[in-house]
Write a structure and sequence with these properties.
The complex is a heterotrimer. Chain A is mainly alpha-helical. Chain A contains six helices and no strands. Chain C is built from eight helices and no strands. Classes of the chains: A mainly alpha, B alpha/beta, C mainly alpha.
């Protein structure tokens, strides 16, 4: 059941991204979509609207980049509670450090080892 | 000496001859409907080089050498080498010229470069400044994509209006004596911009430029589209081609079956996933130097109008929100 | 001059209408269905990893981070193999929005600009698309933290 929910919710989030690309100006690129999802996810999360989606769909809500925004927002909020104002700057990055670190390390390794094919 | 006809058309008194042509293309172009007409089909996009940029320059160089070889000519027999491509500072042409050791005019007219070079070469010959000129232009799908759009491994969806940059280079030898089709006239285009900003719809951006140039040509010469056995545009593709037809029709010139576009000829648009068709400096260069030159020699056409169109934006100007300025030059080529 | 500009604007408007008529309509429905299937499938795989990690006794936040890391690796690896751009051709946003798409956007430019060297090629290009994403992500997160600090 959880698997099905992850599939459906994750798929629907991607459909929102697709509509964003297909129905708006032609100058919308993947970079705009990614930035939009991260900021959108963070705002929804701060308003308390994203956590219910994560509870419902698990990876269906955390794997789309809006989930990255959610981690950033929640990290900042948690850190402000424990450390005060300094936490606002550190919290989001702390909470997402594993993912970003992995992205840089794997990204670098793959880019060095492989060559473009097409 | 040649003379000027009407507003922007030139007529050559001793029309230069296109005595030889040569083409080098990538694998996808080789598998396309015109595969048979190319001299050299590469097995991969790297052409034995370390980078795609070097591969493109090598293609340009090899096509130029091949054209010379077909006429049994050496570098020192050529007065000028005229070439260009799409990359920043036309590096493909510059590096090819480095090893050819022929006095070099570097040209940039984006995808219109080939006709620009043919006309400029003809002016040099008809003006008595040269006896033999070598012209060439090239493009490479991967070098162009990453300069203008995205890295090739980026998982993106290409819009249906997008065109596929041709990997290929075409070269021609122009001479003042010999046998072959002759460049009899040329119409030099103005830069036209009707405000299209979508780099995934280049054909639509370029159509008004070629419409403007051909209208000027028809007015200057008193000809109409039926006077030509073939009207060939460079790389308008499906959308640009239709827009071009519409624009001419509005001004009272209707194009018949004698109209073709290199961008639509070079690929099987359904099977090869090329969307709206081919584009790039190499597109008109290889279609003309391959198929069309052969058909001229076979006397399938006696008189053709060849107009190549170029989009003159850069990645920077697009990011700054500028629209796409375009240009088209047309050459009349006859073989009696 | 004004009259000329006006005429030019009218011509532009007229031409835009013409181009819109000719341009093939974006197949929005087909694109959305594909985005749904591809994006859903990627999330499904993520969910499988999440449940495996949870089953190994990891805490919820830890398991989520491990899942994200795994998916980043898969996205990067498939890009290296030259498979991710094919998925992207069909999946559209379905392959861009998941974190695997973020990994793809890191590897693709870095790999392609390797010839420009390891500092300005790989190093700088890693962040062509990831850079803006991180910049705006960090900005919004700090902003949320500050607002939360002020209103709590």
């Amino acid at each position: 059941m959880k698997l099905l929910l992850a599939f459906v919710i994750g798929g629907l989030l991607c459909v929102i991204g697709q509509l964003f690309m297909d129905l708006t100006r032609s100058s919308i690129t993947p970079a705009h979509v990614l930035v939009g999802f991260v900021t959108g996810g963070a705002i929804l999360s701060a308003l308390g609207l994203y956590q219910p989606l994560v509870d419902l769909a698990g990876a269906g809500a955390t794997i789309p980049l809006s989930g990255f925004g959610h981690s950033l927002a929640q990290g900042a909020i948690r850190a402000v509670q424990s450390k005060g104002l300094l936490g606002a700057f550190a919290g989001g990055i702390e909470a997402t450090a594993a993912g970003i670190g992995a992205a840089v390390v794997f990204g670098y390794a793959i880019a060095v080892v492989f060559n473009p094919r097409s | 000496m040649g003379s000027k006809v009407g507003q922007h058309t030139i007529s050559f008194s001793q029309p230069p001859l296109l005595t030889a042509g040569a083409t080098v293309v990538g694998p996808m172009e080789g598998q396309g409907p015109l595969g048979q007409t190319f001299d050299w089909i590469l097995e991969d996009l790297l052409f034995g080089e370390q980078t795609w940029e070097k591969a493109e320059s090598k293609m340009l160089q090899e096509s130029a050498k091949l054209a010379l070889k077909k006429r049994n000519l050496q570098s020192q027999d050529i007065d000028y080498f005229l070439a260009g491509d799409l990359l920043n500072q036309i590096i493909s042409a510059n590096y090819a010229a480095r090893s050819l050791a022929i006095p070099f005019w570097g040209l940039f007219g984006a995808c219109s470069t080939f006709v620009e070079a043919v006309l400029f070469g003809s002016i040099l010959i008809d003006g008595g400044f040269a006896a033999r000129v070598l012209v060439a232009s090239s493009s490479h799908h991967n070098t162009a994509e990453r300069q203008y759009r995205f890295p090739t491994e980026q998982g993106i969806q290409r819009p249906l209006s997008a065109q596929w940059t041709v990997t290929g280079s075409g070269a021609l030898v122009l001479e003042n004596t010999g046998e072959g089709p002759r460049v009899t006239m040329g119409t030099i285009g103005k830069v036209i911009d009707l405000g299209i900003t979508d780099i995934n719809n280049m054909g639509a951006a370029m159509a008004p430029a070629v419409a403007d140039t051909l209208l000027t040509h028809f007015q200057d010469t008193g000809m109409n589209p039926d006077a030509y056995d073939l009207i060939l545009t460079g790389d308008l593709g499906v959308i640009g081609g239709n827009a071009f037809r519409d624009l001419l029709a509005k001004r009272g010139y209707s194009l018949g079956d004698n109209y073709h576009d290199c961008g639509m000829l070079i690929y099987d648009l359904e099977k090869q996933d090329a969307h709206a068709g081919g584009s790039g400096c190499g597109c008109s260069a290889v279609v003309f130097s391959g198929l069309i030159l052969r058909q001229l020699w076979e006397k399938q056409y006696r008189k053709i109008l060849f107009a190549a169109t170029g989009a003159l934006m850069s990645a920077t100007s697009i990011q700054q929100g500028e629209s796409i300025p375009c240009i088209a030059h047309a050459a009349v080529i006859e073989f009696n | 001059m004004n009259l000329e500009q006006q005429r030019q604007q009218e011509m532009q408007k007229e031409y835009h209408v013409l181009v819109e008529q000719i341009k093939p309509k974006t197949r929005v429905l087909r694109n959305c269905i594909l985005a749904f299937l591809v994006g859903g499938f990627i999330c499904l795989i993520g969910q499988i990893f999440l449940q495996i990690y949870l089953g190994q006794g990891m805490g919820e936040r830890e398991a989520a981070a491990a899942t994200a890391t795994t998916m980043v690796f898969l996205g990067a690896f498939l890009t290296g193999l030259g498979i991710y751009d094919v998925i992207g051709k069909y999946g559209g946003a379905g392959s861009i929005v998941p974190i695997t798409g973020f990994a793809n956007s890191i590897v693709a430019p870095a790999m392609e600009f390797k010839r420009e060297g390891f500092v300005f090629g790989v190093g700088a290009r890693l962040f062509t698309i990831a850079g803006p994403v991180l910049v705006y992500g960090f900005l919004i997160s700090a902003l949320i933290g500050i607002i939360f600090y002020l209103i709590r």
